[in-house]
Amino acid sequence: HKAGAATSARPPATTARYRASSFRHGHCAERSASSGSEALVRMSLLSHVVALGVALAALPCYYAIISFLASTSEIEHHTPAQLGVCIFYGAVLAVWAGFEAGFFVLRMQPKYEEIDDNSDDMEAEPVPEEARVLNGVSKHPESRIAFIPKTQLPALRASAEFVLIMGYVYLCDRTTLVAKGPKELSSLRFWGLNLLILLAGLASLRATPTAETHVKPIQRDQTEEWKGWMQVMFILYHYFAEAKIYNAIRLYIAAYVFLTGFGNFSYYYIKQDFTIVRFAQMMWRLNFFVFFVCATMNNEYMLYYICPMHTFFTWGVYLTLWAGNALNSNDLFLLFKIAALLVLTAVLYDVNGVFGAVFQPAAALLGFHDPLHPEFTDSLHEWFFRSHLDHLVWIFGMLCAYCFPWADRQLQRLDELPTPTRLAARSGVVGATLLLGFHWYYSAFVLGKRDYNKLHPYTSWIPILCYLVLRNISNTMRRYSMHLFSWCGKVTLETYILQFHIWMKTTGINGSPKFLMVWVPGWYWLNMSLTSAAFLFVSYRVFQITVTLRDACISKNLASLGRGSLGALALIALFYGAGCLAFSSLAASALPPEAPAAP
């Protein structure tokens, strides 16, 4: 319509010249489109052939590497699940290699370009928009090989990198290629290293970027910092076997669980986002990595008890706020739900027989068989012990999140008081907090391991509350955080899992990290520095890969999410079946040949 109007507005001579030029452009466009289309078809066919060839060539290379790892493995027999995930890893690497090569070929294909008319009579007249379109296509079509568009290549690369990381995990902890050594028990080294890390953290102190004068308490940077410095002490506790701080480690784990209750309640209470998509993203974050580690290493889920604990308590927060969520703005109704949750939790853990009856159907998932403690015949013993220690503190986290607006208002009023009054009020709050903390310390924290564990579920909220008050008492305290620990706080899940296998070495299947990984024998600090650098780098990469694959695999469309979930279950069944076939084949080949029948 626009072209017709423009043509009718021109003088007759100009219109005739334009039609002639359009006729020439049309023929030129058709010839260019025809030759371009033929080239595109050839390049597309070539890219598919190259992709298939490279993928097939990658499989024997992968088989050779796996055979080598199996020959050096400390584990004689592998399970069908391990063989199935091994086949899956090979398929991922082959698919990635093939598509990487195929898209590389596609990058060399000719591109659509605007028609260049060099005729003298058209130099002063621009080519109209409709003459630039080749057969209705105004831009290069999306690159695609088979059913995979080029936009999915980053996810394929992340998947391939993840497979390589899982191979590295197996190599470090299940083969004889990496040596292991005893832990060196030294409180001086433990505390000296913690002091150096603290000084480095203080050097990374920075203000939270905000334009507001009043800084709200318990900001994201602060909670990440909190998780970070606790995680540093937690993994060093394992590295140096510093059993003297057992009670402190129990408290740190309680603080993690507290933050699970606090963070999830805050999100669901404020956002009112109870969609399956959001919840699936959270479950992916908590369980994607540990699922593949368990399948690869043949360990039970409960070996990494932090994951099932946080998963269970996240479910608790979600279901509590989801039930009757339209009435969550009613304070009485919300407090009633929290009180009901508290009663149900107390019944579950503190009434004999209830816990076993509830969780026995999930014993296959939550059961644990500790090779170091065969005296525990109840497979749910570990799950009860770990979750019982922190079965109340996550509800305290929910209550703190509910009281957050009130606490923020009180802090703002405190900051607005005249200086003498403000200092006096802060001193009073700090004094009362320290008094409460000292009472808890001398009445509970100094007890022995077993006695402390009896009090821990009911008293862990006290030091957590004291820490929150002291950490947020002033605007300056709330504004600044240590960036080093905030960074560490982002990868707590990854460092928790990987410390077992690429920083230390376990005793085997379901084993604890009782040994150190040795790269440089005889050089303790050099060895620790090198293994720590690799450990932190791999942890951060796993964190990034988890996020990348979460965004690629979890669709924001509910129907697509359902289809994707069914597809994932089908893939699990397919590769587990392949693992069972491989297991049967290996078992049959290992049988001795039958003796010939007697004549």
Automatic annotation (TrEMBL):
Pfam family for this entry, one: Cas1_AcylT
Q: How does it sit in the membrane?
A: Multi-pass membrane protein
- InterPro entries registered for this protein in UniProt: Cas1_AcylTrans_dom (IPR012419)
Keywords noted in UniProt: Glycoprotein, Membrane, Transferase, Transmembrane, Transmembrane helix
Ranges of residues in domain Cas1p 10 TM acyl transferase: 153-558
Leader sequence residues: none
Q: Name one GO cellular component term.
A: Golgi apparatus
Q: Where in the cell is it found?
A: Membrane
Which GO terms label this protein's molecular function in UniProt?
acetyltransferase activity
Name the major location: membrane
**Listed GO biological process terms:** xylan biosynthetic process; xyloglucan metabolic process
- Write out the transmembrane intervals: 49-70, 82-106, 253-270, 276-295, 302-320, 332-349, 423-443, 455-472, 484-503, 523-543, 564-591
Task: Tell me its family.
Answer: Belongs to the PC-esterase family. CASD1 subfamily.
What name is this protein filed under?
Answer: Cas1p 10 TM acyl transferase domain-containing protein
Q: Which organism is it from?
A: Coccolithus braarudii
Q: What is the lineage of its organism?
A: Eukaryota, Haptista, Haptophyta, Prymnesiophyceae, Coccolithales
